[in-house]
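# step 3/5: fold
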Amino acid sequence: MKRFFQASAAALIVATLAGAAPAQAARCGNGAGGFEAWKQEFAEEARGRVGSAGVDALMNTHYNAATIGADRGQKSFHLSLEGFMQKRGASAIVAKGRQLKRSMAGLFQSIESRYGVPPGPLLAIWGMETGFGAVHGNQHALSAVATLAYDCRRSEYFTDQLYSALELVDQGRLSPGARGSMHGEIGQTQFLPKNILQYGTGNLDNAQAALMSTANFLHAHGWQAGAGYQPGEPNFAAIQAWNAAQVYERAIAIIGRQIDGGGD
């Protein structure tokens, strides 16, 4: 399967008549064996789109078998809602979230004033993603993203993520050696590179910047100040944009409501 786009038949005819061979996109693969060749091909394609710092960072990536294992084994998303919340420690997230809502009240007031997003869903996301910053992941982030861009399962989606990551390196916003989670997520609320590029407001290893960036993401995806965020309410769609797993979306809504004082 080829990445990017397939040339139209007309474009191929024109190229042939002109005596030029059509450009070949880097081909995805299903194992470590083809990664280095793919990386060379991808780097050639990337040179016209990203700077030398980004290309150099790409060339220093490695195939990450642990990332592939994690991508194939996301079993918790197939649990019942009750089982998922228990596995993720929902009650502990609620208790800690209520405490942080009080101790960081000034920050949350500022965020809600600017983006319209109340503390509950932000704290639910923060707690679910990293245990309020306790666990960020220790994978080489660029290698994780490059591995998934090479892997055929979701290569198109992660090709976009990889280009965003390389652009962030070019801009000096992402260190080539940055550590992240299994899919290359970065920071306290686990942003993928494209979301950092579009919605990041600072260093996402910093709690304040991560929470503001998360609120910015939700706001950009249609969050309406003062509206509800449970299933069927206006702001649930913004939560759905954060994560496509139904149990995750519903867990964020429930935990957020409990933190915001809306009952069980």
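# step 4/5: annotate
The chain has two domains: 26-70+139-180, 80-136+189-259.
# step 5/5: archive (pending)
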